[in-house]
Amino acid sequence: MHARSSIRPCRSGSLCCALVLVATLAWGDNRSSADTPGFYDQSKHGWFWYEDPPAEPEVEQPPDQPVPSVQSVSRDVSLANYSTEELWTLYPDDFQQLLNGLQKKAVQYPTEQNILEYLSIQDIARRKALAYANATQYVTQKRADLFTLNQVYPVSTPGVAARVRLQQDEISRTIDTARTDHALLFFVAPGCGFCTQQAEILAHFVDRHGWQVRPVDLTAQPDLALRFKVSVTPTLLLIRQDRQESMAIATGVVTLPEIERKLAQAIRFLRGDTGPDSFTTYEFQKGSALDPAAILNTPAPWKGSVTP
């Protein structure tokens, strides 16, 4: 007789085998997790429980790189290959480089020869600078009409007195001729102590020139303040009749001479007599070295004949 096996082959094929495999793995995982201690079994470890942490693995350090030795390098610079004439006409950048090199060489190696060469080229540099200064003085004296300011801005005591007199006469003349078609707005505010001081100065201005000065309360007439973009007091503003143009004269307390000078400059600017690049140029200075744009209307001096 043949004994029959109690194990029958799985008719569902691979599906049955897969279920058996999953059950086997799950049973194995349960056993391994049961054998492994949990968190609460290992919680009393570490610094708090006076237990040293595991030693960190040693990291192999790269070998130290050798420090390069500092060697003294002598620059190969010398005057041996130069004549005095060559040094005298050497291009300034090349001359400066040679001088610096000789100086460093003399400091590094203070021998008699090195110091002699450095002092020699330094003497040539001094003489060259003196030659340039003398030549500049010669040209400015010969062409004083181009390169000096004495004819319009003298510095001697009599010349300064004459210049100040010319400036004051032109300022007064400009202000007096603009009295009928110009006026000043004086912006003030309640409790402004500086405004009181400036008002006293403006009273002297009115007595001298007879101008109209209209006080404007910044708080009572904010529309005017907004129109002329005034936000601080005291502020003095120049306006012109039948024109939208205006110009600030001063902010804060300023002296009477400063008011007159700035007012004359503003009047000439609004009239078109000056521009931003000639704003401070007086009428008697036009066409001179103090008139920046005047050079554009003169022939180039370097293209003319140069006589020794």
TrEMBL record:
* Annotated segments matching region Disordered: 51-71
Q: Is rRNA-binding given among the entry's keywords?
A: no
Tell me the superkingdom of the source.
Answer: Bacteria
Q: Which organism is it from?
A: Desulfobulbus propionicus (strain ATCC 33891 / DSM 2032 / VKM B-1956 / 1pr3)
Protein name per Swiss-Prot or TrEMBL: Glutaredoxin 2
Signal peptide feature range: 1-28
Q: Which InterPro entries match?
A: Thioredoxin-like_sf, TraF/TrbB
- The keyword Signal appears for this protein: yes
**Which UniProt key words apply to this protein?**
Signal
